[in-house]
């Protein structure tokens, strides 16, 4: 393969990777804005016992939920995963470690009566 052909392939590959990164990469500010937009709805569902926090750093449902609550939960969890990855890359750790730290924080901030799912898989209401 000539150097010219090789250079073209490298340029194409770099362009594709950069394009994919730009599409897939949400900024911290974009994620925070979406979290802010969903916050009141999520708090309402937590207070109602429809959603709760898990020890893995994501929302979960202690019982069956409707499609709207499920979509909200899935959107929140997808954005949390993106956020954990951004933070992990910045701190040179894993997204799982970042998620665990966030879970500890969320458990501490949970209000009395909200559901929390521990490592044993059981849901419990916070006292």
What do you see in this structure?
α2 crosses α3 and α3 (67-91) crosses α4. By secondary structure, the chain is α+β, with helices and mostly antiparallel strands. It is globular, with a radius of gyration of 19 Å. The chain has one domain (27-125). Helix content is 65%, strand content 9%. The chain has helices spanning 3-24, 28-47, 67-91, 95-109; strands at residues 52-54, 59-60, 115-117, 123-125.
Report the order of strands and helices. Answer: HHEEHHEE
Morphology? globular
Largest sheet, described in full? 4 strands, mixed
Strand order of the largest sheet: 2-1-3-4
Number of helices: 4
Q: Averaging pLDDT over every residue, what do you get? A: 87
* Beta-strand residue percentage: 5-15%
Number of strands: 4
Number of domains: 1
Helix and strand content put the structural class at alpha+beta
Q: Tell me the radius of gyration.
A: 19 Å
Uncertain segments: 5-23
Q: What share of the residues lie within helices?
A: 55-70%
End-to-end separation in angstroms reads: 69 Å
């Amino acid at each position: 393969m000539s150097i010219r052909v090789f250079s073209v392939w490298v340029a194409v590959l770099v362009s594709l990777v950069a394009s994919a990164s730009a599409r897939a990469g949400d900024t911290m500010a974009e994620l925070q804005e979406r979290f802010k937009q969903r916050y009141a709805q999520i708090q309402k569902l937590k207070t109602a016992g429809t959603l709760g926090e898990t020890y893995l750093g994501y929302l979960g449902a202690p019982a069956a939920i409707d499609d709207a609550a499920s979509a909200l939960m899935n959107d929140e969890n997808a954005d949390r995963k993106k956020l954990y990855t951004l933070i992990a890359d910045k701190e040179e750790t894993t997204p799982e470690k970042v998620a665990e730290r966030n879970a500890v924080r969320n458990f501490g901030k949970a209000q009395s009566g909200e559901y929390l799912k521990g490592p044993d898989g059981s849901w419990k209401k916070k006292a």
